[in-house]
Amino acid sequence: MRVLQSLCIAFSMYSRIPMPKVKWTEENMGCVLCFFPAVGAVEGLLLYGAGQLMVLGGFQNMFFAAVMTLLPLLITGGIHGDGLIDTLDAMGSWGDREKKLEILKDPHVGAFGVMGLAVYLIWSIAVWSEGGAKLLPVAACGCVCSRALSAFSVVTFPAAKKDGLAKTFQEQAKKRAVQLGQLPWFLAAAGLMLWLLPLPGAGALVCGLLTFWYYHRAVCARFGGVTGDLAGFFLQVCELAMLTGGAAVWYLCR
Length: 254
Hints:
Layout: H1 2-14, H2 26-29, H3 36-56, H4 61-76, H5 79-93, H6 97-105, H7 111-131, H8 136-156, H9 165-172, H10 175-196, H11 198-223, H12 228-253
Helix pairs in contact: 3-4, 3-8, 4-7, 5-6, 5-7, 5-12, 7-12, 8-10, 8-11, 8-12, 10-11, 11-12
C-alpha cells in the first residue's frame, strides 16, 4: 500500500496526470524518487503515441516539431521548465554562491530565464523538425534516462541549501534504495534505445552522460550542491542534449 501511495505522489508532484489523493507522510515520501522514472516512462509512451498518430495523420515538419516540443510541458505542468528558468537566471547573474541561491528562490522571472527558455524551445523545434518521427524512440527513452539520473543526483550530490525540496528528499528518502532503484530504469531505457536505434541511440546516450558530468561539476562549483530547481534544469537540458545527439548521428549516418 505504501508503494502505491509513493507512486501516486510521484505522479502528482511531477505530472498533470490525475492520481488519487494520498497523504504526503514521511513514510510515503521516502520512496517517491524511486518512481520518478516511471513518470518519464508514461510521458515517453504518450510522446511516442502522439507522434505516431501525427505521422498517420500526415502532420510533419514544423507542426510536428511544435507539438513534440510543447507536449512534455503539458504533461509535466512545466515543473521542470521552472527549474530551467530559475537556474538560467541564477547562472546569468554572475553573482557569488549566495546570490545565485537567492535568485533560485526568487519567484520572479528574469531576463536570462526568458531568453534561455526561448532558445531552448526554438532549439527543440529545430531538432524535431530535422529528425521528425525518427527521434521518437530517443525522446521516449530519454524521458526515463533523464529522470533516473536526476533522481540519483538529488540523493547523491550534496544539498546546496539547508531547506528546500532536494534537502527534504535527502532527509526522508531511503537513499540506498533510491540510488539502486534508478539503475534498472536507466539500463532498461538505454538498452531499448540502443536496440531500436543503435547509432543514434549511442549518440544520445553519450550526450546525456556528458550533460550529467557537466551538471555535477557545475552545481558543486557554482552552487555548492543540488536543489530541486537544479535537478529540473538538468532534466530539461539532458533531454534536449539526447535529442540533439540522436539527430546529429542520424544526419551524419544517413
